[in-house]
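ok so dumb question maybe but i'm new to this and my supervisor (M.) told me to 'just get the structure for (apollo) hypothetical protein' and walked off. so i did the thing. is this what she meant?? sequence i used:
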Amino acid sequence: MPRQSLYTPEEVHEALKDKNFMDDGKYLERNHHIWTEARDLLPKMTVDYLWIYITKNRNDVSSRIHNVPKLKVKNKKKVCNISNWSMNDNKHGLEELKGTIHFTLKQWNQFGLNLKLYKDGREYEVFEPGWTDLIYQSLWENFKIPCPFKFQSAKIKRNTEEHFLMIKGTCIECQNNINIYSVNEPNGDGIDIIVSTFDAKNVQHYKKRQLRGRTREKVANILKGQSTYMYRRNVANQRMHFQDQEPADLFNDYVLRKAKQQQIDKELCLEPNTNEVVAVMSLKKILNTVEVFERLEPIDYT
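this is what came out, is it supposed to look like this??
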């Protein structure tokens, strides 16, 4: 999805070409009145966003305003540093683990990129809720990592010299750090992401990732037709091999039972902490619907 900029680079340059944001080779401080004056010329931008836009020389606008020649580099390519970024944080003496996961274009589209506009005018592409579950599933399938990682927000940057995708995470139990990144944007074949972490397969883990959002609703719907015990058994048979630790998204039985019951309560319009009168009225409303009424059969008292 292409970004919709507040102003084109030409519009920004045209509005600010007579301004001087530098003094003695340095940009003026953020609290200088020049930034407020510039904001008045570009009202869709906040002062903070404008300050970043100019000081970071986005779209080469600052260089054009201050007549600084742009540095020309022929055939400049993005540098891929495949060293393990987590090596300085090894608290357990574990061996480093590095590898690549390939997502097809169809799999990549499941992450659902959307454009998010913040109040200060910043625009970023973000994944749809539930993307961390997809990431962890891929980590388990490829590396059998049992760590219940908590991931930070994914950083996506297009048309820059930086990596296209950067994700950092930490295991909430053993504090194992993980870095996930991709140098290039996806193409017709999909995208390759590089994983850098420690091999914690032999570290016993007891904690699990949270069951929430779309994953919780999906699992709860599956549980309608089977017990939580059978669900866990089927998932374990599909995803685990002999002597594997449990994946962090093979949720505990009591968590599954609660998710199942909450889904049933939701369908019956029984919200948590609902008193008896409201519960009866909700049930009466459901029974009066045509779909339910047609399924009711008269009781034969003979």
